[in-house]
Amino acid sequence: MFRSFRYTTALASGIFAGALVLGACDQAPGPLDPADSPPALSEFSFSPQEFIAPLGDDAADAVIPLSMEVTARDPDQDIAAVSFVVFGDTTLAEGLLDYGNGGRYTGRSDVTIPAGELGAYTVLVFAEDREGMLSNTVRGTLLVSGDGSPPVIHAVSAPDTLHRPEEGEDPVLLEIAAVVSDPDGLSNIAAVEFWNTDRPADRIAMLDDGVGGDAAAADGRYTRIVQIESSNNPGIVTFAFQARDRAGLLSNVAEAKTVVE
Known about the structure:
The protein is mainly beta. The chain has 2 domains: 4-145, Sandwich (Immunoglobulin-like); 152-260, Immunoglobulin-like. It has 1 helix and 18 strands. The protein has one helix at residues 4-14, and strands spanning 26-27, 40-47, 50-52, 62-73, 79-87, 91-96, 98-99, 104-113, 119-129, 136-145, 152-157, 161-162, 172-181, 189-196, 204-205, 221-228, 235-245, 254-260. Strands 1, 3, 5, 6, 9 and 10 form a 6-stranded mixed β-sheet that branches. A 5-stranded mixed β-sheet has the order 12-18-17-14-15, with no helix packed on it. Strands 2-4-8-7 form a 4-stranded antiparallel β-sheet, with no helix packed on it. The model is unreliable at 1-28 (pLDDT under 50).
């Protein structure tokens, strides 16, 4: 498939489009031969540019029928292939566009988005001629979203009272927990954090991975084990909890109080 794989890794790590449809904006690397001219791409478009994915924890992967068009011209009339790549953190689809009329190349690909993995994905196209010279790249952003609702924290828990250990004794373990859901499924939750309201900048991540004190992975119950030492100050500690989804939407803030004696 010519050089699709070579492009995917390099471009995915350094390029992420901010507009839905962009024209040529950079020159791809390739051999330079003053006797020849590389292909040039323009008038790139694709559809759909936005897609609403299925909702819920039992939702299947989303399959997007993506159609693409681009104009490819070469003064030497020796275009060998026009390729496309669709990627986010990994490559989701790649292939070749077909030649049509007037220098227009078109193609269609079913792009599979794993359930709950909402966000922006890059659609990138480039051409190569028979001498191995590479064109500029054109690209756009495919936005995959859910219903636009944020996560919800349903319940939080922390011990009502905790006794500090005596000096020289081992720390006392404090389990913090939050029950969280998301209208687009648990896989759409990007982070759950808690913090002491006296120190709101010091946020601590909570986990739902079935290890390190968490009872079961991916059950919506996020936990964190913290240590209370003899040097901790006595008093009432108020913990605040909040979740964030992949689209950056924030949940309600819930609180729990623990008396440290």
